[in-house]
Amino acid sequence: MSIQSNLNTIKATLPEHVTLVAVSKTKPVSDLMQAYEAGQRIFGENKIQEMTEKWEQMPKDIQWHMIGHVQSNKVKFMAPYVTLIHGVDSLKLLQEINKQALKNNRIIDCLLQIYIAEEESKFGLDEKELNELLTSVEFKELKNIRILGLMGMATFTEDQNQIKKEFTHLKSIFDSIQKLQFVDLKTISMGMSGDYQLAIECGSTIVRIGSSIFGGR
Ligand SMILES: *Cc1c(COP(=O)(O)O)cnc(C)c1O
Questions:
Q1: Is 193's pLDDT higher than 90?
Q2: Which residues are listed as membrane-spanning (predicted)?
Q3: What's the total number of domains in the chain?
Q4: Angle ∠(12,112,156) on CA atoms, nearest 5
Q5: Fewer CB within 10 Å: N-end or C-end of the chain?
């Protein structure tokens, strides 16, 4: 199957309110251009250097989403152009993003990553840490970032019930933040190639799909 037909097949299954991020990490620009020519304009990368190299080479109407774990000292490289940073998991990182956004005279949209998996290796905040962050004085001072929503990654497992439980947990945290009105959350980024349909059933509005579009890595 070609990249174009993979993309069209997936897009045909997505409800209108769900945004597709084509996860292009490790793939060459020629593969991304095939997706671009098929109409895709949102790409997700997990390494800042690789994303920046692709941004330099590719058309400027592309929206670049950083989906990986972000190191503070590299934020400056993507601050001029990044559209959405999915994996923000600390106040310190938000402060650095705010600082670099200010330098670039822009507001950078972010998602806060929530820890929902049963794997030690995954990053993210728990509900208590999220509440603390959103109600802190330091957070309220940040004028050059905007929190658009939450992001999560389920455990890497075949167990659909487990995954569903984790996605539902993220949705319930989202709903309780909405009720408390700390910030006006608009979106939930959850779901990858193997679990995006389940994620959408559980309330996802952004899916991050790589291998089902571009093939295995
Ligand atoms: C790689 C990656 C994806 C895409 O995974 P696929 O299984 O290839 O669809 C989604 N989200 C994050 C955070 C990733 O690192």
A1: yes
A2: none
A3: 1
A4: 60
A5: C
Q: Is ligand 1 within 6 A of the CB of residue 46?
A: yes
* Ligand 1: centre distance to CA 65 (Å): 12
What is the per-residue pLDDT across 104-163, written as a single tens digit (0 to 9) for each? 999 999 999 999 998 776 689 999 999 999 999 999 999 999 999 999 999 999 999 999
Quick one: how many helices (H) and strands (E) in the chain? 10, 8
Q: Is 26 in the pocket of ligand 1 (CB under 6 A)?
A: no
Helices (H), 136-195: 137-140, 160-180
Is the CB of 192 within 6 Å of ligand 1? Answer: yes
Helix (H, G, I), strand (E, B) or coil at 209: strand
Q: Which domain holds residue 49?
A: 3-214
Ligand 1 atom index nearest CA of 193: 9
pTM over 0.70: yes
